[in-house]
Every structure is written in C-alpha cells, then in structure tokens.
Amino acid sequence: MSTVANHLQKEAGKPRITQYPSVQRIGRVLWLLIVGAVSTLALWLLFVKFVHMDALVKKSPMQVWDYLFTVKKAPANRSALFGALRTTMGNLLIGYVVGLAAGVIVSSIFLLSPAIRRTFLPFALLLRSVPLIVMTPIIGLVFGYTFTSVRVVTAIVTFFPSLVNITLGLESAPKQASDLIAAYGGSQRTILFKVRLPYAVPALFAAMRIAVPGAMVGALLGEWLLTSKGIGHYLVERPAKFDYTGVWAAVAVIAVVTLVLYAIVGVLETPVLARFDPERLQEN
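Given the sequence above, the corresponding structure tokens read:
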C-alpha cells in the first residue's frame, strides 16, 4: 500500500505533458512578440541617430507619438490612418482566408490525383516565379481596379506557402493508418478526411504563420497599385502632402499589426499542436 502511495505522489509531482508545454509555448510566443517590438523600436532609434537624412523625411518614434496623440491635429491624423488600416485589414483577412482555403483544396486534389498534380504543379511554380509587382497590374486588368483585385493578390501570396506546407503535411500521415482504412474498404477520399487532413492540421498552422507577412505585403501592394484607399494608398498619398511623419506612423502601425497577427496565429496553434502533434509541442 505504501508503495502505491509513493508512486502516486511521484506521479502527482510530475508536470502534465498536455498542459505545461502549452503554457510555455504561449509564453514563448508572447515573449517573441515583445522582443520583436523592442528590437524594431531599437533599430528605428539607431537609424534616426546614425543615418544622415533630411530632417523633413527622417522621423523619430517620439515624433510619430506626438503626431498620433499629442499635437492639435492628432485626432484627424488617427482618423485618417486607422480608417485606412480598417480598409487594409478587411482586404487582408478576406484574401488570407481565401488563400488558405485554396491551399487546402488544391493540395487535397493533388494528393487524390497524381495526374492533376503532374499537370498543374509546374504552372503553379511558374506563376510563383513571376514577381508580384509585375503580376498585380495584370490582376487589375482582369478583375478591375477594385478591392477584389487587392484580395486576389493577397490570396495568391497566401496560397503558395499554404500549398507547399499543407501538401507536405498531407504526405506525412503514417502509411499504417492509411493502409488500415484501405483494408476495411475505405476509399482514398475517406483516407484523406479521416487520416491525412487531421495530420496536416499542424502544417496548416505553420503555413498560416508563414503567410501573415506576405499577405500584408500583398494587400499593401494591391492597394498601392490598384485602388485609392487603404494603407497602401496612404503611403503614396502622404509624401505628396509632405506628411512624412504620417508615412512613418503608417509603417509603425503596419509592423505592430503584423507582429500581433503572427502572435495570434502562434497562440491559436498551441492547442492544435497539443491535440494533433504533442511531440512537436514538446520540442518547441
């Protein structure tokens, strides 16, 4: 009896694998968010101190702070900047979700039909090799100079890392599980939904993290070249008005939003790894 009690005490003293690594990983994601923000601010201060530029163009973090919160026109400055940000976030989120969904669908089709994969994968790689700044005006001609084109650009930027990562995730499913379902008469579609897609969920979240910065760049580029609204257009419009502080403020806001979105995906990824890939959670 005492031996059993000692064993239970030892087990109680051990950290639970399913809980503590999750908490540690969330803490690590938030810590990286803080480090990224502090590092960006430090580089900005070093740039202002050591890079010689016209004072009209070069702005410090304190000048941006005053521009947004202290000066008399601060409410109007915030309204213009964050109004543009709302437009950009709408375009970004729609394109981002569409690109991820397309990545899941196309990678599943490639897995189910090797012939389709051999036929269309070279075209996908060729499309990926075209510079985005060259592709964007063509998209504008096809879909019009509207937010639809901006969202298409964002979706394309999101699609390619999703396609690669999700395809690798689908192919990483253990062959034994697929063979077991096949032995009981399951079709390839059943294997896809019962085995391969669950094993690809961690790869999907990895693709989501990788795609966040690219999606932001795609949305900004699309707004810059194709529309007259959003942060992308704001960055073009402000220098024409000699409002370089507004440009720096927009860049700072973009950096913060991108870091926050990346961190949000990392936090959401943690319970998914705990459910589908606890070994990777232990490693991370």
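The two ends are 39 Å apart (CA to CA). Try to locate this feature in the token string yourself.
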